[in-house]
Amino acid sequence: MLLTFQQAKQQVLQSASTIKSLHSEKVTLFDALDRITAESVISPINVPSFDNSAMDGYAVRLADLKQSKLLPLAGAIFAGDDINKLHWPQGTCLRIMTGAPVPNEADAVVMQEQTEKSDLGITFLGNVKTGDNIRRIGEDVKKGAITVNKGTKLTIPTLSTLATFGISDLVVFKKLKVAILSTGDELTPIGQPLSGNGAIYDSNRFTLKLLLTKLNCEIVDLGIIPDDPTQIKHALITASSQADLVITSGGVSVGDADYTKIALEELGKINFWKIAMKPGKPFAFGKIGDALFCGLPGNPVSALITFYQLVQPLILTLSGQQIAPIDLSFKVKTINNLKKSIGRLDFQRGILQSNEYGELVVTTTGQQGSHVTQSFNGANCFIVLEQDRGNVNKGEMVTVELFNTLLK
User: Fold this and answer.
1) Of 381, 252, 362, which Cα lies nearest the Cα of 305?
2) Are 297 and 303 in contact (CB under 8 A)?
3) What is the pTM of this model?
4) Do the Cβ atoms of 373 and 301 come closer than 8 Å?
5) Residue 366, in any domain of the structure
6) End of a domain among 278, 293, 318?
7) Amino acid 188: pLDDT
8) Tell me: the pLDDT tens digits for 286-314?
9) Beta bridge partners of residue 108, listed in sequence order
10) CA–CA distance, 198 with 72 (Å, rounded to integer)
């Protein structure tokens, strides 16, 4: 009996705990983009590090304003000024700029739009309360506070924030090392002429390199391996000795020349190699030595979908990412009839869009065969049809799963 998709995914993710511990390294802040933090990041300073003005205006003492709404101007404070030796007479106000340090004696900063300027000084028009328009020390982040948790993917906004703390380097997990190879006598490297009627280009390995690059992995590319049991076995031994994860394309079906599964049985362990999903039924998963193994189907669409749905979450876990991805699935109406056979969870490619009434609806991208790579063109979601569901009629509710950043 075939494993359900959820059973297969659960086994894949549970296996992540069996791989060797991840090592860490220190990198500069500039080189930390998309890396995963190996330890929590602590703020070394208060942010802001001093009381400062939230806007251009006037620093005042409330006691002075109680005496008069018109105060002479005694000076000005600009961002970067040293106010330790500032002389500020009683009964006056100070011009102050955004980001400038606020004197300890100041009770508030009044925005310039709430004042009138004359030769006699500044007239304050509205009510003023203690603390108005003053950014207090440590108001954003206090010194010693955790600002980024361990296992967090570092984005541009996060790194920009850390730069404001003066942090110059971070401890991150080392990149996951992934070995890839394609099997098949019919495969031709991209850029070379096809030889023979049965020859096809090795697009899967090219796609894998793009996906793994986007997932910030270190790639060991072992190229195309012929349909030869000895060469496939040798390649798998090499791959498992050099990488944390081995990914192959092709050779895991039931054909006479599908030797990858046979080699895996001899060298390691197969957890499973068939799933009740479409496309992607012949997906092999196991272990060779200390490395985990994922055998993707040879059809391009099947390879891409199994990578997205099963290998991607495995890689994120193995890379040390501890924050679960957001569920991007919900139900909408389909505006097409959808063909579906009962027995497998189906990931059809779709386009989520608004109709003339502003309602979200989904349309299919057309033919959904596992060889039809054009089915991804223009798609922005999967139409996920349940395992026990048959054909779907136009207007029925279906589950859509928006593509995450890996396919954008």
Assistant:
1) 381
2) yes
3) 0.88
4) yes
5) yes
6) 318
7) 93
8) 999 999 999 999 899 999 999 999 999 99
9) 60
10) 90
